[in-house]
Amino acid sequence: MREDEAALAYGGGWADRAGAVRTDPDRLATLLDAAETRVLPLWQDRCLADGAAPVRLSGEAAAPVRAAGAEPVFLGFVAGQAVFAVDLSELTEDAAAAAAGATRVVDVRRLVGRLSPAEAALQAYARGLLHWHRQQRYCGTCGGATSVQEAGHARRCTEPDCARLYFPRIEPAIIVLVETAGSPGRCLLARHAGAAENAFSTLAGFVEVGETLEDAVRREVAEEAGVVVTDVAYQGSQAWPFPAGLMVGFRATAESDEIRVDGVELLEARWFTRAELRQRAAVGHRLGRPDSIGHHLLSSWLAEDEAAASASR
Questions:
Q1: Closest listed residue to residue 294, CA positions, set 205, 176, 179, 193
Q2: Which domains does the chain have, with CATH numbers?
Q3: 3-state SS of 5-39?
Q4: pLDDT tens string 156-177
Q5: 189 falls in which pLDDT band (50, 70, 90)?
């Protein structure tokens, strides 16, 4: 694993997802009953936590959750231990917390800075998968009920004449740091509709049917900011299961510094030098969410002139 991959929250591939086990009901039953197996309970996409740590249950402590929750979903193995997730969303919040022995219910994004990268990735994985199950209870073709398949990694329509099989869908989106050529370097940040006054961030948007990731970068920047870009270069990706995103990061170079915002997605956009961004950070303006790839793109861009200065000494 590269260092930059490990730096991005909610990813890293620490869990062995054990795809072959998903279709082995006897093995799954044995794992679910094993004393060392861990169960992650969630309630309506949020962590059931004890203080700052998400609840992890095993043995007899997991019995109330298994009895009260939806069918367990197999996440895989972590450090040799099987891990399942259970959705308690059909209960009230208080009842879910009581079943799990939790003291609070909180979004994983509120805890990510206090969790190890592996724990944050596992919690987000569980969140995204359980959210999909709640949204896919009925067949989109015939309207019949769907049932859990492959230990929670698929659902099938129960109508015999249909029997359509569904798998969790990922919604890819691009996020891009656009910069000008030449010196001093400047990057394009925008204030999106609904954002607070003076809150600027990188441009992003969903990939549409029939376009590549690079096409989506060029289209989004042109549509929203009126800027034509070239030299579109991949920087990295981030799992973003809130509920089903995959953020794909790029850098691109603007052909000119003229800006024409669309007034719908973007309310305003500006070019910022590195010095201006550092000044903003010094007075409390965040460079994107700390757990986001947008923050990583901006931080990496800011660090480049420092690295160049050090190399020239």
A1: 176
A2: 9-135 (3.90.79), 171-312 (3.90.79.10)
A3: HHCCCCCCCCCECCHHHHHCHHHHHHHHHCCCCEE
A4: 999 999 999 999 999 999 999 9
A5: very high
